[in-house]
């Protein structure tokens, strides 16, 4: 609060120190703050630390406030306030000639909004399937084909020609020679044959086939001429 005081009995230009003091009636436990510039000076601070004013230039006002943390404050109620001053080099202290009674009440505390915690649902973890054993592919060895050695033989192949009459034609038939397990046929002499994997063949079926064909052809010729009549000469004999 702001207090207005009237100074009298001082000399213009004189420097004095002033402060406001709150107390309860009948008590000497003073408390409160006095503003000096931008600072607040506690009542119990030293005299030289209080606000200084120059007589003749001071407007007679001072700003004070209560001190709720001081031991002289006993709670809300009526308190007496005086202005105390110091002057001269001796810092002799004195009080104002009168006192004021004021009612002190504490300011209501400003409510602080406490944020309400927001419920955040925790997602239910989904069951995770344990990984099963991993099938490791087994490398299958690739069979390596062993090449079969090939034997080349060179030998003269004699060639024989046998003619079998088939009706009115002569068909040459060439017999081959076997070298190892290979049946090869050649025309001429001195040819070179290579062995190949062929099954053994027998000449007997060919021989019997040609014989059968030859005999059958002969029978067909005989029957043909029999029907036509043989060109035999007839001899007529007369008997007497």
Describe the protein in words.
Strands 2, 5, 7, 8 and 9 form a 5-stranded antiparallel beta sheet that branches. The model is unreliable at 150-169, 171-196 and 232-240 (pLDDT under 50). This protein has 240 residues and is mostly beta strands. β3 (33-36) and β4 form a beta hairpin. The N and C termini lie far apart (205 Å). The protein has one helix spanning 204-228; strands spanning 2-4, 15-23, 33-36, 39-42, 51-54, 61-65, 77-87, 92-95, 100-104, 160-166, 169-175, 177-179, 182-184. The longest helix has 25 residues, at 204-228. The protein is rod-shaped and about 195 Å long.
Q: Briefly, what is this?
A:
With 240 residues, the protein is mainly beta.
Please describe the structure with a list of short key phrases separated by commas or semicolons.
four-stranded antiparallel beta sheet; disordered C terminus; 2 domains; mainly beta; five-stranded antiparallel beta sheet; 1 helix; rod-shaped; 240 residues
- Count of alpha/pi helices: 1
Structural class per helix/strand content? mainly beta
Strand content: 25-35%
- How big is the Rg? 76 Å
The total strand number stands at: 13
């Amino acid at each position: 609060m702001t207090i207005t005081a009237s100074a009298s009995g001082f000399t213009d230009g004189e420097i004095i120190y002033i402060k406001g003091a709150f107390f309860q009636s009948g008590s000497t436990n003073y408390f409160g703050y006095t503003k000096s510039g931008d600072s607040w000076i506690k009542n119990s601070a030293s005299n030289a630390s209080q606000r200084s004013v120059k007589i003749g230039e001071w407007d007679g006002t001072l700003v004070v406030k209560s001190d709720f943390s001081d031991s002289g404050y006993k709670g809300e109620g009526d308190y007496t306030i005086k202005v105390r001053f110091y002057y001269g080099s001796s810092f002799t202290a004195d009080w104002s000639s009168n006192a004021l009674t004021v009612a002190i009440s504490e300011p209501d505390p400003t409510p602080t909004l406490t944020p309400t915690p927001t419920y955040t649902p925790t997602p239910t973890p989904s069951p995770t399937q344990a990984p099963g054993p991993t099938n490791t592919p087994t490398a299958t060895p690739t069979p390596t084909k062993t090449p079969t050695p090939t034997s080349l033989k060179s030998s003269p192949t004699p060639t024989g020609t046998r003619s079998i009459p088939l009706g009115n034609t002569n068909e040459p038939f060439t017999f081959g020679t076997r070298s190892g397990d290979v049946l090869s046929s050649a025309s001429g002499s001195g040819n070179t044959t290579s062995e190949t994997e062929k099954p053994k063949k027998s000449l007997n079926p060919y021989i019997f086939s040609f014989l059968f064909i030859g005999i059958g052809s002969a029978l067909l010729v005989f029957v043909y001429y029999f029907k036509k009549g043989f060109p035999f000469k007839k001899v007529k004999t007369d008997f007497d």
